[in-house]
């Protein structure tokens, strides 16, 4: 029997590349040949992919960036990408094609659709991205990171969850130490790029906490480079112990140690919080396409695991109040941690790999 062969199409942002990497790792371990079709932006993330994944750069384009000349060239570029990919696939036919959204996934999904190669997509967010919207009814199924996700009529949705890193899985359901009369950790994170609004609001909200709470707080605060110095200075002036960095490489450990997480609700951030199981205050990024960060947060909030503050309602008093509710109420915090865990999908990668294997079997049966 020949080695089964998976083509993964992903690129653009880390948000598409992280789950693609998790699937690539898992399928290699299962003895599959794995190839990644990506773009120059996605190429920044391939260093983290395991050795053995073949990389191919596909021509694609987006209407979202560039001037008129660039926009006029979008159609021909995409057509060239699809044609080039179709020619490759005719020579070297994948058993399954999986797209993770974003413009770079168009050539592989387009070619697989033309050639009727078994294919599916994974959507990380609670609202379908534009490219996934285009292919949702042209694939065998839409694997959804967030459940429920609104799908167009005729699309078949399957809940897989969003794959999380191994370091997150190692801490899945790690015992939660409820807040109390001892050092307490608060993790503040704004997603892969950080978030200015959290640097504007969180330090003031912590400074305004009741003294008995504030004196016990240790903050890990992810702040963009340009905000780092003022955030550090504010914490220092107010005698608050804080570690301020543009990006924490050890988020899984910091999250596991935290009594409270204050975060944007990007897909992987929400997945990490629910797999480790920690109380959180979530502030969805209001400008996200289709308001998908609100959709991402909904399941966790409805389960009672998180408090959501919409960006337009976010101010220092509101944040102080919600932080106080969690940090002065150990029972409520413990309940939130449990509730968060109840919506976590630590087996998201396995669920995805099972779908890929089923698709390949359907093809051969
Ligand atoms: C601004 C924006 O449009 N963001 C989108 C982007 O999210 P973005 O890439 O910002 O965020 P995600 O929440 O999906 O992923 C961030 C990941 O980085 C980790 N982390 C974060 C901070 C840090 O210091 N260290 C660290 O390791 C988090 O734990 C998480 O695992 O793609 C996601 C998936 O399509 C979308 O849901 C988001 O809406």
UniProtKB/TrEMBL annotation:
The keyword Protein transport does not apply. Residues 7-143 form the Glycosyltransferase family 28 N-terminal domain. Keywords: Cell cycle, Cell division, Cell membrane, Cell shape, Cell wall biogenesis/degradation, Glycosyltransferase, Membrane, Peptidoglycan synthesis, Transferase. It is an enzyme of class 2 (transferase). Pathway: Cell wall biogenesis; peptidoglycan biosynthesis. One of its GO terms (molecular function) is undecaprenyldiphospho-muramoylpentapeptide beta-N-acetylglucosaminyltransferase activity. GO terms for cellular component: plasma membrane. UDP-N-acetyl-alpha-D-glucosamine binds at residues 13-15, 125, 165, 192, 293. Its main location: membrane. Residues 186-351 form the Glycosyl transferase family 28 C-terminal domain. One of its GO terms (biological process) is peptidoglycan biosynthetic process. InterPro entries: GlcNAc_MurG, Glyco_trans_28_C, GlycoTrans_28_N. The keyword Plastid does not apply. It catalyses: di-trans,octa-cis-undecaprenyl diphospho-N-acetyl-alpha-D-muramoyl-L-alanyl-D-glutamyl-meso-2,6-diaminopimeloyl-D-alanyl-D-alanine + UDP-N-acetyl-alpha-D-glucosamine = di-trans,octa-cis-undecaprenyl diphospho-[N-acetyl-alpha-D-glucosaminyl-(1->4)]-N-acetyl-alpha-D-muramoyl-L-alanyl-D-glutamyl-meso-2,6-diaminopimeloyl-D-alanyl-D-alanine + UDP + H(+). Cell wall formation. Catalyzes the transfer of a GlcNAc subunit on undecaprenyl-pyrophosphoryl-MurNAc-pentapeptide (lipid intermediate I) to form undecaprenyl-pyrophosphoryl-MurNAc-(pentapeptide)GlcNAc (lipid intermediate II). Belongs to the glycosyltransferase 28 family. MurG subfamily. HAMAP family: MurG. This is UDP-N-acetylglucosamine--N-acetylmuramyl-(pentapeptide) pyrophosphoryl-undecaprenol N-acetylglucosamine transferase. It comes from Ruegeria halocynthiae. The lineage of its organism: Bacteria, Pseudomonadati, Pseudomonadota, Alphaproteobacteria, Rhodobacterales.
């Amino acid at each position: 029997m020949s080695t089964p062969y998976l083509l993964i199409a992903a690129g653009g942002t880390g948000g598409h590349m992280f789950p693609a990497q998790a699937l690539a790792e898992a399928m290699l371990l299962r003895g599959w040949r794995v190839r990644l079709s990506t773009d120059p932006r996605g190429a920044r993330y391939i260093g983290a992919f395991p050795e053995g994944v073949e990389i191919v750069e596909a021509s694609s384009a987006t209407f979202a960036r560039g001037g008129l000349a660039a926009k006029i060239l979008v159609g021909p570029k995409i057509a060239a990408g699809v044609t080039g990919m179709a020619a490759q696939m005719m020579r070297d036919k994948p058993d399954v094609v999986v797209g993770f959204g974003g413009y770079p996934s168009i050539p592989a999904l387009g070619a697989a659709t033309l050639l009727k190669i078994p294919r599916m997509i994974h959507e990380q967010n609670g609202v379908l991205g534009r490219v996934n919207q285009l292919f949702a009814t042209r694939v065998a199924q839409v694997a959804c990171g967030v459940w429920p996700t609104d799908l167009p009529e005729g699309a078949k949705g399957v809940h897989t969850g969003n794959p999380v890193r191994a370091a997150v899985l190692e801490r899945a359901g790690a015992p939660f130490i409820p807040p109390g009369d001892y050092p307490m950790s608060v993790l503040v994170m704004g997603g892969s790029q950080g978030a200015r609004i959290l640097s504007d609001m969180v330090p003031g909200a912590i400074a305004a906490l009741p003294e008995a709470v504030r004196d016990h707080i240790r903050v890990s605060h992810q702040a963009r480079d340009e905000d780092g110095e003022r955030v550090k200075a504010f914490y220092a002036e107010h005698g608050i112990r804080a570690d301020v960095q543009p990006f924490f490489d050890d988020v899984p450990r910091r999250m596991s140690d935290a009594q409270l997480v204050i975060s944007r609700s990007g897909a992987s951030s929400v997945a990490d919080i629910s797999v480790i199981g920690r109380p959180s205050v979530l502030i969805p990024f209001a400008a996200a396409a289709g308001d998908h960060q609100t959709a991402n947060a909904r399941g966790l909030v409805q389960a009672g695991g998180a408090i959501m503050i919409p960006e337009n309602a976010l101010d220092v008093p509101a944040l102080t109040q919600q932080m106080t509710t969690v940090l002065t109420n150990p029972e409520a915090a413990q309940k939130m941690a449990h509730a968060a865990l109840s919506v976590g999908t630590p087996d998201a990668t396995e669920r995805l790999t099972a779908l890929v294997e089923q698709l390949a079997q359907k093809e051969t049966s």
